[in-house]
Amino acid sequence: MAAPPPPAVRRPAPEAAAAVRRWTPPEPFDPRDLPRNLRVLGRGPYDPAYRAAGGALWRATRTPCGPATLCLVPDAAAGQVVAEAWGPGAEWVLEALPALLGAGDDPSAFVPRHRLVAEAHRRRPGLRLARTGLVLESLIPSILEQKVTTDEAYRAWRLLLRRYGEPAPGPAGRLPEGMRVMPGPRTWALIPSWEWHRAGVDNKRSATVLRAVSRARRMEEAAGMDLAAAVTRLTAVPGIGPWTAAETLQRSNGAADAVTVGDLHLPGTVVYALTGERDGDDARMLELLAPYAGQRHRATRLILATGRRPPRRAPRFPRGDIARL
C-alpha cells in the first residue's frame, strides 16, 4: 500500500505588518548574549525552526494560539531587543518575550564555588536561562536525542519537520528559506512507522513520542509546575527518563537546577573542568555540583562556556543508520 502524503497544510497569508515589541533586558546588556542564551533552543545549524541570519534570530514555534514566527534583533544603542512576530500565535510569543529572554531568571542567587566557575561567571554576566513556556517543542527533540549521536538526532528532527511541519508564517523575501513550524500533536500521531524509520528513528523513540503527544495537554501543564512536580509529570510517560526530562525543562521552564544526568559527555567534562580528573561519572559530577544546589544547571552552562574539555581517548560514539537495516 502506498504511503499517505504528509498532512496538507496551508501557508498563512503574509501579514501586512508584524506585531512588534521592544523590551529592555536587565543590565548588563550585551548584544552577544542574545544568541548565546538562546542557542540551546536550536537543534543544529540547519534546524528548520531556529535560524540565525543577518544579525537576527528567527524562531518558528507552535503556541497555544497557533503557529508563530518570532524575529529578534538586538538594538545595542538603545539597550533593547526588538521583537517582530507573525502568525496566529504572534501576540502570545510577544507576551512571552521577557520570559524567553530570561526575565524570570535570578542569577543573583548563584554563588561561584570554584575558581573556574567564578571566572566564567565574571566573563558572562549576561547569562540568562531562557524559558519558552512550551514543553512538547523541547520534549520531542530531546526524545529523538536519546541514545544516538547528536548529528543523528538533528537529522531526524530536520527531516520530520521538513516533511510534516507547516511553513512558518512571515514575510516572503525576509523569512529565512525553509523555516517550518513543528507539527501539532495529531500530525505527530499520524506519522506512519516507515517515515520514522526513514528519518532514522527507532521504534522505541518513536513510540515514546507518540505516548507524549497523546498526553499533550498534560505535558504542556508541566511548564507551570515547579521542577520536582514537572519531572514527575514528564517521567510518568514510559520512555521519558531523568535525562530527557532535564533537557526539556531546562528550556521550557528555564529550570536553573535541572542538571542533566545520564549524559555520555557531560559528567566527564564537568569533573575534568573542576578537578582535572579524567574519569568522571554522574556520581562524581553531582558531588562536585552539590554546593550549587538550586543552580546546578546554571553551573554546568558556565562550565561548558569555558571550553575546558578532557582529552579525547576513545573513538567517537558510532553512528547508526536504521534506515539501512
What labels describe this entry?
325 residues; alpha+beta; TATA-Binding Protein; Endonuclease III, domain 1; two-stranded antiparallel sheet; 15 helices; 7 strands; Alkylbase_DNA_Glycosylase/TA; DNA-3-methyladenine glycosylase activity; 3-methyladenine DNA glycosylase; alkylated DNA binding
How many helix segments?
A: 15
CATH superfamily caption of the domain at 136-239? Hypothetical protein, domain 2
Q: Which strand order spans the largest sheet, edge to edge or round the barrel?
A: 1-5-4-3-2
Overall morphology: globular
CATH topology of the domain at 136-239, by name, is Endonuclease III, domain 1
User: What oligomeric arrangement do these chains adopt?
Assistant: single chain
Structure characterization notes:
The protein has helices at 33-38, 90-95, 97-100, 115-123, 136-144, 150-164, 185-190, 193-198, 203-214, 216-221, 227-235, 242-252, 266-275, 282-289, 296-305, and strands at residues 19-23, 50-53, 56-63, 66-75, 80-86, 166-167, 180-181. The chain has 325 residues and is α+β, with helices and mostly antiparallel strands. Among the domains are: 19-105, TATA-Binding Protein (2-Layer Sandwich), CATH 3.30.310; 136-239, Hypothetical protein, domain 2 (Endonuclease III, domain 1). The strands form 2 sheets. A 5-stranded antiparallel β-sheet has the order 1-5-4-3-2. The chain has a two-stranded antiparallel sheet with strand order 6-7.
